Automatic annotation (TrEMBL):
Keyword line: Antibiotic, Antimicrobial, Cell projection, Cytoplasmic vesicle, Disulfide bond, Glycoprotein, Immunity, Innate immunity, Membrane, Neurotransmitter transport, Secreted, Signal, Synapse, Transmembrane, Transmembrane helix, Transport
InterPro entries linked to this entry: AA_transpt_TM, Bactericidal_perm-incr_a/b_dom, BPI/LBP/Plunc, Lipid-bd_serum_glycop_C, Lipid-bd_serum_glycop_N
Description of how the protein assembles with itself and partners: Monomer. Homodimer; disulfide-linked.
GO terms, molecular function: gamma-aminobutyric acid:proton antiporter activity; glycine transmembrane transporter activity; lipid binding
Swiss-Prot/TrEMBL domain comment: The N-terminal region may be exposed to the interior of the granule, whereas the C-terminal portion may be embedded in the membrane. During phagocytosis and degranulation, proteases may be released and activated and cleave BPI at the junction of the N- and C-terminal portions of the molecule, providing controlled release of the N-terminal antibacterial fragment when bacteria are ingested. The N- and C-terminal barrels adopt an identical fold despite having only 13% of conserved residues.
Membrane topology classification: Multi-pass membrane protein
Gene Ontology BP annotations: defense response to Gram-negative bacterium; gamma-aminobutyric acid import; innate immune response; neurotransmitter transport
Domain Lipid-binding serum glycoprotein N-terminal: from-to ranges: 582-800
This protein's name: Bactericidal permeability-increasing protein
Transmembrane segments: 178-199, 240-262, 298-318, 338-355, 375-394, 465-482, 488-510, 522-541, 561-582
Chief localization: membrane
PANTHER family linked to this entry: BACTERICIDAL PERMEABILITY-INCREASING BPI PROTEIN-RELATED (PTHR10504), BACTERICIDAL PERMEABILITY-INCREASING PROTEIN (PTHR10504:SF132)
Pfam families attached to this UniProt entry: Aa_trans, LBP_BPI_CETP, LBP_BPI_CETP_C
């Protein structure tokens, strides 16, 4: 027996060394083939077979194989197997299951576990090439045993902050404060413990009391817990959790790529979602790759670069250690957002699915517990320090991806490296998910839902390719719909991370090891299960709530997509009739004017009295506080897409104040004057825009961060010489009080603005006949260079509030950064006004002989109408006539490039006035005409010209018999020519452009387009009055 064992081991070593030296590339491809990639050559297939055989022995930790007949070249045939107990021991005294053939593949559960283990190792440690190469050399050099140092390296790399997703940990501290730091430690302790108990579930005691490794993977443990009633249920649960985590990880890679690129190039007119689309286009070739050799080589360089990036971030934070805001680290939590932070922290420790393979690779499994302790300690320390120093540096301004907080000079370079790493890491979880899905849908023997997706030659068929492309597109759609890195990471950690790391290990441990557990083990398992359940449920609920809010914040998703694909509309929900676009030029001009207005009035500001206590019993009051000098730097304002609003920051504000002080201690009163200088005040505020239920614009304070560099306070008069030396000891408190009140005061101003907005009307009566409604039709749309407001812009008849028989059409006003404002007026708005006046009855008139000018020889009576209607004078001689002229339908305007058109469909009813003043109907005429014209802006006025293209007169009905209308039509055209000349004379004079009280448009340009008119203009604030 010993001879056979030695012979087998020698044989394996010889084969391994030979294969590593001569076919290392084929071995690498072979291992990747087991991860779901096709072998491209026969050599790769041979490498897969060799690696599979080596990997089986290596992962089982065995020194014994099935006895086989020896053949030439040292190879053994699969005959002569020894049947026996399928349970085997780690020390090689047991037997390998007889159902496994030499060179065969693992069962499905083992394969999936190996896929997850390999992916997790590569995902958070190092690229696949490095993993496979080191593993192959370890097998060849140590007779299929793993050096414990290598395992320590793999495990530490797996858990330490080398992965992309550690960049979200500072955001967790933002909402959790010191409790978030405690949770990083607590999660490390719990995950270390659950990792150990998970490995304990791989073993059972035999009749001799010796622990035997009877299971190989997480899936095996899950199936054992559900046996015998549901022997495969547990494995399905674990596999589903794995697939969810794999797909969510792919989505996170796309989200973080879009986020990083958007924040790297904020000046580009490209949104975060558009960057995500670009990233996905770059990832589409993943559907066609047969292996990851090229990607893995680049991934190794990106991993090394990521080490450097983490060092750069920490070094930058340390360079600003003097500015660290320790007081910003909260002792309380954000109840709504902290559960999401729990999921983020848990997600950063997800490695349990990898541990069975890792423990199986260890030469001395007894060192597994020691390895777990040290690696989790290292991960806890590094993650905690990274999250803390990053949060201390940026405090409340901490973003979801911490590199977005870096200065723009280095942010772009750092983020480009991170995007490269994300794109090159995407194929690893993508192919692992594809492999599992392909086996379930196409390759599950006779139970598969669809035919095999691979042809006889190994080529991928169309439905298999469709699955891969569909998975890439699905990750894009999720990234576009929910572009929130922290929410998705928290959801994944809560849904799968807590389950795989907290719930299932403790539950499996209780189920499989119940008879051997002490009371404190039971207590720990139950406590972890309860805590994990609470964390998972709360994190899942709050993450879903956050995602729902994100969907609502984005407006109506599917109408937006339709608009994007058709007309690239910038508005969501109901199509607007009016659009107003504020460009960055207009924003900067408004900022400049506002800053000047504030500067001019700072000296006139009087602050309210400030009262309080010092030293517990001394009451003080500061009164008459005024500004004596102010160094007011112009703030920076930018559109802020993440909050759909504005981001304002001001740096270097210094103010000198003067006032009076009074103190009271019992019956002792004192007083005098003081001077206060405040230096280097930095304020950053983010204001979000939205709309209320009635369509009014609303503003809210999203975030505010204030920092006071230094203060200097001098007191004069009274007993000030006594306490003046002690003032310096209170500088920190004075500075803190001033800093603490800046943001609340700023938020009060925002609340006042919100109250003013809520008091505004969203409609007004144009005249006694029609009213104009202009509420917002959707949320404001903000990108890096502009803000778009979509307004309803619809006229209604006051007497008959009725919707017109036509709907507003989507239109997109071109954005011209050379102008401050762009206004789009749709033909719907103008036609709704026409319809309102039509319902109000304004398109009708009564014409009689009295309205005809005396200079016109023609009179409106039956005798004068003889040349047009011969029988009329005979039937009704010498009677006056009334003509009732009215519109059969509302006149409709249509806008086309360079022209405006008007269709008018009217009618004329003629009556003869009898001597007794009764009216006798004579005939009805239909008059149809269409006009065209142009509109332009010149000399600051809106001007136009119109011309009649066609006019037709037809007889609709007649009480005097039929007659021809040609003569009437000629007369009407002649009259229209004279009428249009008068109209064009008036239109040529023009009308003043609309203006606000203190703002007038300048450099205005009008452009006519299909369905709308666009007006581009700058604005000028008048200085001859108060600015309001």
């Amino acid at each position: 027996m010993a001879h056979l064992i030695r012979h087998k081991i020698t044989n394996k070593l010889t084969n391994a060394a030979h294969t590593v030296s001569n076919k290392s590339q084929a071995k690498v491809s072979g291992v990747f083939a087991r991860l779901g990639f096709q072998a491209a050559t026969d050599e790769e297939g041979l490498g897969f077979a060799d690696c599979d055989d080596l990997d089986y022995d290596y992962r089982q930790g065995m020194q014994m194989d099935v006895l086989q007949g020896e053949e030439e070249g040292g190879h053994m045939e699969g005959e002569g197997e020894l049947d026996g107990d399928s349970h085997y021991q780690r020390d090689g005294t047991g037997r390998r299951p007889s159902s496994l053939k030499t060179g065969g593949s693992l069962d499905e559960g083992q394969t999936k576990n190996h896929i997850m283990g390999s992916w997790l190792e590569c995902h958070q440690c190092h690229p696949a090439v490095s993993c496979v190469s080191q593993s192959l050399h370890a097998w060849a050099d140590s007779a299929c045993h793993c050096d414990v140092g290598l395992v320590h390296y793999h495990s530490t790399a797996l858990l330490c902050p080398q992965g992309m997703f550690v960049l979200g940990l500072p955001y967790a501290i933002l909402h959790g404060g010191y409790l978030g730091l405690f949770l990083i430690i607590f999660a490390a302790v719990v995950c270390c413990y659950t990792g150990k108990i998970l490995i304990a579930c791989l073993y059972e005691e035999n009749e001799d009391g010796v622990k035997v490794r009877v299971r190989d993977s997480y899936v095996d443990i899950a199936n054992a817990c559900c046996a015998p009633r549901f022997p495969a249920l547990g494995g399905h649960v674990v596999n589903v959790a794995q697939i969810i985590e794999l797909v969510m990880t792919c989505i996170l890679y796309v989200v973080v790529s879009g986020n990083l690129m958007y924040n790297s190039f904020p000046g580009f007119p490209v949104s975060q979602k558009a960057w995500s689309v670009v990233a996905t286009v770059a990832l589409l070739p993943c559907a066609f790759l047969k292996n990851l050799k090229a990607v893995s080589k680049f991934s190794l360089l990106c991993t090394l670069a990521h080490f450097v990036i983490n060092i750069l971030v920490v070094a930058y934070c340390l360079s600003r250690a003097r500015e660290w805001a320790w007081e910003k680290v909260k002792f309380y939590i954000d109840v709504k957002k902290f559960p999401i932070s729990i999921g983020i922290i848990v997600f950063s420790y997800t490695s349990q699915i990898f541990l069975p393979s890792l423990e199986g690779n260890m030469q001395n499994p007894s060192e597994f517990h020691c390895m777990m302790d040290w690696t989790h300690i290292a991960a806890c320390v590094l993650k905690g320090l990274f999250a803390l120093v990053a949060y201390l540096t940026w405090a409340d301004a901490t973003k979801e991806v911490i590199t977005d907080n870096l200065p723009s000079t280095i942010r772009a370079v750092v983020n480009i490296f991170l995007v490269s790493k994300a794109l090159l890491s995407y194929p690893l979880p993508f192919f692992a998910a594809v492999e599992v899905l392909e086996k379930s849908l196409f390759q599950d023997g006779g139970r598969a839902l669809f035919p095999d997706c691979y042809g006889p030659g190994g080529q991928l068929k169309s439905w298999g390719l469709g699955l891969r492309i569909g998975l890439v597109v699905f990750t894009l759609l999720m990234a576009v719909f929910v572009p929130h890195f922290a929410l998705l990471m928290g959801l994944t950690g809560s849904l799968t991370g807590a389950g795989l790391c907290f719930l299932l290990p403790s539950l499996f441990h209780l189920k499989l090891q119940w008879r051997n557990l002490l009371w404190h083990h039971v207590f720990f398992d139950v406590a972890i299960f309860v805590i994990g359940g609470i964390c998972a449920i709360s994190g899942f609920i709050h993450s879903i709530e956050g995602l729902i809010e994100a969907f609502r914040g984005a407006g109506e998703m599917f109408p937006s997509i339709i608009a994007l694909l058709t007309l690239l509309s910038v508005a969501c929900g109901q199509s607007p009739g009016l659009q107003v676009i504020l460009t960055n030029k207009g924003l900067q001009y408004g900022k400049h004017v506002g800053a000047g207005w504030i500067q001019d009035r700072l000296m006139n500001i009087t602050f309210p009295d400030i009262s309080g206590k010092v030293l517990g019993a001394i009451h003080f009051t500061l009164t008459g506080i005024t500004i004596t000098k102010c160094d007011f730097p112009e703030p920076s304002v930018e559109f802020y897409q993440d909050a759909t609003g504005f981001k304002t920051s001001m740096s270097g504000l210094s103010v000198a104040l003067a006032g009076w002080w009074q103190t009271r201690f019992g019956i002792i009163h004192d007083g005098g004057s003081f001077n206060l200088a405040i230096f280097s005040v930095d304020v950053t505020s983010v204001v979000g825009l939205g709309k209320d239920a009635d369509g009014r614009l609303s503003v809210t304070s999203v975030s505010c961060d204030a920092n006071v560099g230094d203060v200097d306070m001098r007191f004069y008069g009274g007993a000030s010489p006594i306490f003046e030396p002690f003032v310096k000891y209170f500088k920190g408190r004075i500075r803190g009080e001033i800093q603490r009140h800046i943001c609340p005061k700023l938020e009060e101003v925002i609340v006042m603005i919100e109250e003013q907005l809520q008091a505004m009307n969203v409609s007004f009566d144009v005249d006694q006949d029609v009213t104009l409604e202009f509420p917002l039709t959707g949320l404001p749309v903000v990108n890096a260079s502009s803000m778009n407001l979509g307004l309803k812009g619809e006229f209604y008849s006051i007497k008959h509030h009725e919707e017109p028989p036509f709907k507003p059409q989507l239109f997109a006003v071109p954005e011209h950064q050379g102008y401050m404002l762009s206004v789009g007026l749709s033909e719907f708005t103008l036609n709704s006004a026409s319809y309102g006046y039509y319902l109000a009855g304004l398109f009708q008139a009564l014409i009689n002989d009295s309205v005809i000018p005396p200079s016109v020889r023609l009179h409106l009576n039956t005798s004068e109408m003889g040349p047009f209607i011969p029988q009329l004078p005979k039937m009704f001689p010498d009677l006056l006539m009334n003509l009732q002229v009215y519109a059969r339908d509302a006149p409709l305007f249509s806008f086309q490039p360079g022209a405006i058109k008007l269709d008018f469909h009217g009618a004329v009813k003629a009556f003869a006035i009898q001597p007794n003043h009764t009216q006798t109907p004579l005939f009805n005429l239909n008059v149809d005409s269409d006009f065209s014209g142009k509109v332009w802006v010149a000399d600051g006025k809106l001007k136009a010209s119109m011309g009649m293209n066609n006019l037709t007169v037809t007889l609709a009905s007649s009480e005097v018999g039929p007659f021809k209308t040609d003569a009437i039509e000629k007369a009407a055209k002649l009259g229209s020519t004279i009428f249009m000349a008068k109209v064009n004379e008036i239109l040529g004079k023009g009308a003043d452009l609309p203006r606000m009280k203190q703002v007038v448009p300048v450099n205005t340009v009008l452009q006519m387009d299909m369905g709308f008119i666009a007006i581009f203009s700058d604005a000028q604030v008048l200085t001859d009055g108060d600015f309001h």
